[in-house]
């Protein structure tokens, strides 16, 4: 790699990191899944959700560098299929939370039993439920990463976006699990579980309706 190209590469990395950081800080399904699992179960399970999100982010970012976003653009039916599958997952997840809260009135305890060993899976599937991530990464990488960038640089970009997402959501899980937040949550657990379920369903409907 010629020395003259180094400033371009590092400048591009800063651009990718900055744009992605702003995106990650905006609350969405990943944030909601992390907070809900941390409050209803434990910080450890919240961090397992974060691990699933990190793997999902790795998949989307790597696939985008490999051309998945372009494939979605040229194969509309595939994008629609993945998008609808993600929307169905979010809607079903939200519906299950609502039904659990209505059926038991003890949403936290019931959720623990039904989600045993599933915290990582929930994080992974929640992250993978939005195929717009591929389009986002593809657009961001297309305008930020030089086409002649070496393979190690692509790997570094993926590592950076995963570290940003994982670091932010891990910080959320650790912060939410401290102090009186879990205690206060449990005082209004049933109502907040209804709200969480409704938000997940709303996100699913919005994803399905998005063009």
Notes on the structure:
The structure is a single chain. Helices cover 83% and strands 0% of the residues. The longest helix is centred in the middle third of the chain and has 29 residues, at 76-104. The chain contains 11 helices and no strands. The chain has helices at residues 6-25, 29-40, 43-65, 68-74, 76-104, 107-114, 119-128, 132-144, 151-176, 181-187, 189-209. 36% of the residues are buried. The termini are far apart.
Note the gap between the termini.
41 Å
Please tell me what the overall shape is.
globular
How large, in whole angstroms, is the Cα Rg?
Answer: 19 Å
Q: Quaternary status of these chains?
A: single chain
Helix residue percentage = over 70%
Count of structural domains: 1
* Secondary-structure element string: HHHHHHHHHHH
Number of H- or I-type helical stretches: 11
Unreliable spans: 106-116
- The beta-strand count equals 0
| Largest pleated sheet | none
Mean pLDDT: 82
Instruction: Quickly give the structural class.
Output: mainly alpha
Work out the strand percent. Answer: under 5%
């Amino acid at each position: 790699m010629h020395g003259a190209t180094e400033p371009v590469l590092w400048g591009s990395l800063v651009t990718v990191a900055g744009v992605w950081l702003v995106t990650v800080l905006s609350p969405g399904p990943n944030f909601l899944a992390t907070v809900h699992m941390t409050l209803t179960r434990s910080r450890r399970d919240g961090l397992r959700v974060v691990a699933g999100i990190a793997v999902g982010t790795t998949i989307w970012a790597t696939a985008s560098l490999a051309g998945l976003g372009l494939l979605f653009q040229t194969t509309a039916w595939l994008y629609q299929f993945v998008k609808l599958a993600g929307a169905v997952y979010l809607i079903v997840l939200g519906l299950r939370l609502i039904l659990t809260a209505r059926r038991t009135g003890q949403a936290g305890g019931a959720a623990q039993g039904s989600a045993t060993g599933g915290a990582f899976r929930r994080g992974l599937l929640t992250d993978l439920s939005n195929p717009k991530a591929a389009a986002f990464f593809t657009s961001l990488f297309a305008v930020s990463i030089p086409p002649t960038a070496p393979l190690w640089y692509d790997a570094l970009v993926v590592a950076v976006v995963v570290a940003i997402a994982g670091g932010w959501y891990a910080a959320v899980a650790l912060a939410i699990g401290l102090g009186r937040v879990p205690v206060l949550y449990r005082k209004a657990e049933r109502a907040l579980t209804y709200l969480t379920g409704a938000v997940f369903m709303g996100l699913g409907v919005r994803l399905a309706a998005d063009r």
